[in-house]
Amino acid sequence: MGTVRAAAHVFVDDLDAPALSSDDGHHLSRVLRLRAGEVVTASDGAGRWRACSFADGGVLRVTGDVVVEPAPAPSITVGFALTKGERPEWTVQKLTELGVDRIVPLAAARSVVRLEGDRAAAQHRRWQKVAREAAMQSRRVWLPAVEPVTAVATVLDEPGVAVAEAGGGPPGLEWPTVLVGPEGGWSEEELAAADGANAPRVDLGPTVLRAETAAITVAALLCGMRTGIVRANSAKG
After folding, report:
1. What is the CATH number of domain 77-236?
2. Omega of the bond prior to 74 within 30 degrees of 0, cis?
3. Which residues contact 88 (CB under 8 A, 6 or more apart)?
4. Which DSSP category does 17 fall into?
């Protein structure tokens, strides 16, 4: 967000009349302990933001013009197979911090965790909340899209998809969507489906990574290539 130095960043529904939610107001005043007059940037989550001043009572007062930032291109998607415990939440958080534009939790054949019905809906809402909080922390002005649990075959139908698998080629922005399998790896049927969809395999290095580590690794590589801090295929010159 340019050269604006802000004490905090929040998302609001209306940039012309930015109002904090009760949770965000509590976070700024009670957790971050902002004082009146400190700068807070507010965004609508769709690339528009402006500088505000934090006032007593948890009120935001507009101090700057609306700035529009274009969406990063290409749009980067990381799909990851569901894992146990709180790892999916952690994965969503870190993918958001790194700059991933779309996050897709996957129901893979060898996924240990199965989410359906009300439980799946509740978890989806939780992931969206985690992503929003991580986007605030990392000062993003574009909120990532967090999909509900999705079948692997559904994403394979999309263009520009690759699957993380040992023995593949290096990841690159020509395949801005990468799917990461579960701890037990992809099933033969899933690999065959990927081949049938002309989804190439990309290798993430010589060591065996946990599913969440693989997702973070591919996100760091792709987002780094997009910003230019990582040079694609640099090992090959």
Report:
1. 3.40.1280.10
2. yes
3. 80, 82, 105, 113, 123, 127, 212
4. S
CB crowding 170-193: b at 16 or more within 10 Å, else e: ebbeebbbbbbbbbebbeeebbeb
Indicate where the chain has its CATH 2.40.240.20 domain(s): 8-68
- pLDDT surpasses 50 at 140: yes
Beta bridge partners of 163: 179, 201
Q: Could you give the residue range(s) of every CATH 3.40.1280.10 domain in the chain? A: 77-236
Backbone φ, ψ for residue 200 (5° rounding) = -70, 160
pLDDT of residue 234 exceeding 50:
no
pTM for this prediction: 0.92
Q: What is the pLDDT of residues 180-226, one digit of tens each?
A: 999 889 999 999 999 999 999 999 999 999 999 999 999 999 999 99
Instruction: Take residue 93 and report the two structure tokens written for it.
Output: 């958080």
| Among candidate residues 220, 215, 217, the one with its CA nearest the CA of residue 89 | 215
CATH assignment of 8-68? 2.40.240.20
Q: DSSP label at 27?
A: I
237 pLDDT above the threshold of 50: no
- Quote the pLDDT of residue 233: 67
